[in-house]
Amino acid sequence: xxxxxxxxxxxxxxxxxxxxxxxxxxxxxxxxxxxxxxxxxxxxxxxxxxxxxxxxxxxxxxxxxxxxxxxxxxxxxxxxxxxxxxxxxxxxxxxxxxxxxxxxxxxxxxxxxxxxxxxxxxxxxxxxxxxxxxxxxxxxxxxxxxxxxxxxxxxxxxxxxxxxxxxxxxxxxxxxxxxxxxxxxxxxxxxxxxxxxxxxxxxxxxxxxxxxxxxxxxxxxxxxxxxxxxxxxxxxxxxxxxxxxxxxxxxxxxxxxxxxxxxxxxxxxxxxxxxxxxxxxxxxxxxxxxxxxxxxxxxxxxxxxxxxxxxxxxxxxxxxxxxxxxxxxxxxxxxxxxxxxxxxxxxxxxxxxxxxxxxxxxxxxxxxxxxxxxxxxxxxxxxxxxxxxxxxxxxxxxxxxx
Length: 402
What we know:
By secondary structure, the protein is an alpha+beta fold. The protein has twelve helices and 15 strands. It has two domains: 99 residues, Outer Surface Protein A, domain 3 (Alpha-Beta Complex); 224 residues, NADH Oxidase, CATH 3.40.109.10. The C terminus is likely disordered.
């Protein structure tokens, strides 16, 4: 028992020293991080720095401190204003909040805080959603037992797939075209999400067609004040075209395995790194091993200043997400038309991808991934073969320090 007590005391002393290390002087200048939001969750008030990912449960002292440091101020000033608390307890809490990134010291701000100026017009609504939903931990749906799924359905019945207005007049419509009536109609009907692929290599010509017909510039239009604005095969809000695409080449004829950036204006690839990509790509896609036999994966990013420069309100963030959806559908239809096996997924390891691409994850961030392979013999075009679907891992309220 004495050894346990001694270890607890040692740990407590260590925590105090660690917290105080962040505030070496009462004259250090501190400020509340601009990336902190608060909200109620499970009857607790939560402070959440969405850039660092840290969430803590609020306490009265914590709240007083964060409110005090709304601008650059010194701990010595805080101690005077909180005379009912001991100086040591105040400094310990200030040190803890610095360590957890809720407070920042002048000259030692978060290394990416400067880049967050690109999100100023969209904060906090869009920036909170974007950064707080990055790097979600997933597990395979097949890891959920049949018993768990039954319990889930019993507690939360599956919503209906279709909607009806009970008292509305019902008007039949002319029939839709049949698949055999045109190549376009056949392509639309044939589009499916594939999970199984042959071992063959993707011809470079087909990769070029996929890139050019999805992300390539098809022309330009002169716009007053803005000059020449690019046009592509998919619509983009305000013709801002925030999307960029990077190719993880796994099995492409005439292309070394590695990561490439596509230059849509000149229809060329830039090699970022040459390396084996099979395991790396599986990690990019949150462990979805059934994509490992794909020939190429297309990592879609967005350059946010292209939109926020023109649209200084947070709703414009939606148009960036919609753009990614437009591009992905164009990609899937093009791949289907080429006789390939396309897929798409948003279960991503965001920070890993962004690190490998050499982007900061703030002014440019990954949003979506699509891929393609050669079709396996006998099909393989299933939505969720073997229950292989991704499900976000439910997180706690975040009341504990991270």
